[in-house]
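Milestone M4 deliverable, item 7.
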Amino acid sequence: MTYLDLSAIGMRYGDNVILDGIDLSVAQGEMHVLLGPSGCGKTTLLRSIAGLVQPDRGAIHLAGRAIEKLHPKDRGIGMVFQHYALFPNMTVRQNLAFGLEQRRLARKVIDDKIDAVLEIVSLQDKADARPRQLSGGQKQRVALARALVLEPSLLLLDEPLSALDAQIRKRLRDELKRIQRRTGLTSILVTHDQDEALSLGDRISVMNKGQIAQTASGPEIFYRPADLFVAKFIGNANILTAAEFSRLIGRDFDQTAVIHPHMFKFGKASENSNLFEVTATVVETVAAGHVVRYVMQANGIVFNVEAQSAMNEGHLAAGEATIVTIDPLNSHFM
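Output delivered:
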């Protein structure tokens, strides 16, 4: 069931088109990710939903109610920003209580709501700490709790993990997914990090130059990109023109090929198979933990291959020749 519906959202700054007729539907309980490079319009779209900027045209419906003309405080939307924006002189509990106190709720109600949300974000033991006593990940969980405690009808997250280091970011990403699943809160997250998008999103909208290039599940976008922009932005696929792919496989082909490095297989194709078989030479080998990355060349075409690695297992060295096979069913053509 559609819960949030955007129709023909458009915005310009002078001669610059920021949002170009955006249509988007988000289901109730969905974690939807807006993914794209800097300047593609994803944050402006998020802020339009929140009411922090006003689009030039278009309609926004939330739970069947038109909200595009409502003041931000009347939209029932919670927002978590990249920077925590916590009150430094207040404890965690006081930070969470602030918005509830503005609503003039009874103290018992406020305390119960805070206790419940602290349990959700696993910060019960930090209730009396001040922001300076918290790690970056803990501060971001407080910022998330501050949004959750107000029981919003929609949660917007504007690159909430980008200020964190890699290990904390991964842990908090997993925590965010757990919290969103537990609460069932419809959420929209903005990021330029494809791993974050693929890990968190039930569906992903890839944006480019103020438009949505593709909306689909993570696997669909990864393996079946709608156009060359999506193919180049998501993953690290080999993208070969029809002429390049024809030269690689030694037969005529009339479409661009998108082949992820891990989809190549080593060894000869079986008899009567539909696989393309290529004799390739290793140009470069990089052992990277559980994978080995090869740069290979065949028939004048350079391409990347990845293979799983195990302890004490040998790798192909630069200059070695080997046979690789390509399965058309595991490739994408456009």
